[in-house]
Amino acid sequence: MFKKFISLEWKQFFRSSSFAKNIFIKIFMAIGILTLFMYAISIGIGLYFGVKEIFPDKDPFILVNKYILFYFVAELLMRYSIQKMPVLQIKPLLILPINKKTVVKYGLAKSLLTVFNFIPLFILLPFSIILMLKGYSASQIIPWFIDLYAISISLHFLTFLINKSDTFFYTTLIILLSFIGLEYFHIFKISAFAGSVFLALSKNPIFALIPIVLAFIAYRSAYLFQLKHLNLDQINSQNKEVKTADLSWLNRFGKVAPFLKNDIKLIWRNKRAKQTIIASLVFLFYALYFLNMSKHMKGDGMIAFAMVFVTGGFAMTFGQLVPSWDSEYYTLLMSQNIKYKTYLESKWYLMSAAVIVSFLLATPYIYFGWKIYALLVAGALFNLGINSHLVLLGGLFNRQPIKLNEKAKAFGNTQGFNMTNFLIAFPKILLPILLFAIPNAIWGFKAGILTLAGVSVIGILLKNYFLNKLEKLYIKNKYKTIASFKEGA
Amino acid sequence: MIQAENLSKKYGNQQVLNIANLQIKKGQSLGLVGNNGAGKTTFFNLILDLIKPTTGSVKINNIQVNTSEDWKPLTAAFIDESFLIGYLTPEEYFYFIGELRGQNKSDIDAFLTQFKDIFNDEILNKKKYLRDLSKGNQKKVGIIGALIGNPEVIILDEPFANLDPTTQIRLKKMLKKLVKDKDKTVLISSHDLLHVTEVSDRIVVLEKGKIVKDLQTSPETLKELEQHFTTG
Predict the structure, then answer these.
(1) Which residues in chain B are closer than 8 Å to A255, comparing Cβ atoms?
(2) Apex CA B83: angle with CA B143 and CA B43, to 5°?
(3) Is 0.90 exceeded by the ipTM?
(4) How far is CA A318 from the centre of its chain?
(5) Could A337 and B101 be called an inter-chain contact, meaning their C-beta atoms sit closer than 8 Å?
(6) Which of A238, A331, A340 sits opposite B50 (nearest CB)?
(7) Nearest C-alpha of chain B: how many angstroms from A276?
(8) Chain A residues near residue B97 by CB distance under 8 angstroms
(9) Contact assignment for B96 to A262 by CB distance below 8 Å
(10) pLDDT digits (tens, 9 = 90+) for A402-438
(11) Can you give the pLDDT at residue A414?
């Protein structure tokens, strides 16, 4: 039976109408995944030597044990937000004489083939081998390796049990953050405790069995859960009551208000769109990475670039998929009593609001000094004046329809990803660097800031001009967009 | 009200629509019939400027649809489910359309009361998203949505398909009332010859993209159409 399923999926893959069109993207993604694996392997190889280099007096094995708990919690969060139960086309299978158990078992077996199961493997395996080469006893390392991998697999199956619970996600997130907080401020060394637990696993053969048993229990529960939920009632979420919120306070925005209200509902009620909010929250912290990493690079173009990202997360993640968000009902919008410009303007307002909110949330960056804060301000202006328009220009070439109610899969799904998006991203990245870094190098920091901010303010002032131009271009592309949205639906 | 001149649409070498001249007067209700692939939906899509004509043009109220957007306030349509916004509740959808057509919430609430028997207690206050409604109920929402804001031109593609018999009869009654006042121009396509002859005062038969019959509805029209499709 498994053989038949595999042949079905083979056909689904090669006969899909978008196959030929997407082959380039698929190759591109395959290269991406391979690169990721290479990274994982090099982390696995480098881990031992890296730790030795930075902390010459510490034992790498013990240190890794101490902090691996953080890795696992982070892994769970990652798996939760990106990993998806592979969907078999179950509707036609349900009425055929196929054992339900077979369908579920196949689904779970197939689910194991996710990138998330290979990355820990590719990190752990080289690390364990190097540990053994460095004189750790195989009788300790091999059970340790199996245990850690078993934990990772348990997390894999656990994700299916919690797949629908947002509460779980946020609770885990809070736990992770509080672990980090407790650790960072030396209140409670969770790492010391976790370290001894993981060490114990490797020392006592009876303890060593625990993760394996856990993995089996997780598999069994996932299996029973899926079996119980394998009917059409569960596929359709028809019985859920919908909560509506009063958004009439947005009416003050006049003509664009109906669209703003719609877009907020769009983001709130669709999994795919909700992810952009999470992404923009992540972008808020983006600059921390650069600020910590390169103390000697401060004032450099890279920091300017990073500060633009801090406030531009939403504009980029949401904005680059305008008008694809509305692909499911694009014909309605095109035949309704709407001026194209109003539609574009509403998207502009939405992105601007997000920039301002991110800017306010990013106020703590002031801690890094006024220069960084000045860059934050200039970056926000850049997002308002230049980036928002560039993003809408990019949307012009974006004719990939989006199925709203599906989460974006990490690597399998190419919805809303295309080459033009990729190319249009370059000016977004290069412009702030050029506008800031060149005057900064010649005339100093103030000149850099003033150029970046000044050009951006001009962009804001020219908003109407740009939107008029964009409207013309969008109308020119209207038929093509409608046709490709329809084809993909 | 609607003029199509020298209108044609080709996909590759295949001609899917070719209308030399079609004039639809204000207040007229026109039924469009034809077998699958006759070009009915293509014609509607051209009127709504959703596809580009290969030759010719469509004018609504003397406004050429592919050069100006000013016909949009006059026109409303329901072609298929891509005219619905899946993540809204029916009420929110009606309010949204209402806002685009200058109607406030209470206008819409008042407007909706007259369709109580069509909705049959399955649409309003159900706290469900449109995407979770059945196909038939989605269709009802789309059709009623197209009537919001007193549009002068109403275009409905196969309004009777997918509806239960009771609703078909109620919808027919409602459409009859709508066309009786002669202030709206209504275009309906249908495979149901009986319904479409009852609702429309003019019937146009399309075949492979061409107009083969253009009849004023009379008691004999249904027979003539049945004859045409039996031998055709």
Answers:
(1) none
(2) 85
(3) no
(4) 12
(5) yes
(6) A331
(7) 17
(8) 336
(9) yes
(10) 877 765 444 334 444 556 666 667 777 788 888 888 8
(11) 44
Cβ <8 Å between A238 and B128? yes
Asked if residue A477 has pLDDT above 90, the reply is no
- Answer yes or no: are the C-beta atoms of B48 and B23 closer than 8 Å: no
Task: Find, in chain B, the residue whose alpha carbon is nearest to that of A483.
Answer: B51
CA distance A386 to A407: 29
Write out chain B residues lying below 8 Å of A478, CB-based. 49
Contact A338 B82 (CB under 8 A): no
What local confidence, expressed as pLDDT, does residue B147 receive?
A: 92
Which domains, from first to last, does chain B contain?
2-231 (3.40.50.300)
How much is the pLDDT for A95?
Answer: 63
Residue A230's pLDDT band (cuts 50, 70, 90)? low
Per-residue model confidence as pLDDT tens digits over B65-120: 988 888 988 999 999 888 999 889 999 999 999 988 888 889 999 999 999 888 88
What residue in A sits closest to B84 (Cα-Cα)?
A: A329
Q: What are phi and psi of A4, to 5 degrees?
A: -65, -45
How far apart CA A327 and CA A321 sit, in angstroms, is: 10
Contact A335 B83 (CB under 8 A): yes
Instruction: Tell me B75's DSSP state.
Output: E
Exposure letters A24-47 (e unless 16+ CB within 10 A, then b): ebeeebeeeeeeeeeebbeebbeb
Instruction: Give dist(CA A141, CA A134) in Å, integer.
Output: 11
Are B50 and A237 an interchain contact pair (Cβ–Cβ within 8 Å)? Answer: no
**Domains of chain A by residue range:** 22-235, 250-488
Chain A residues touching B75 at Cβ < 8 A: 335
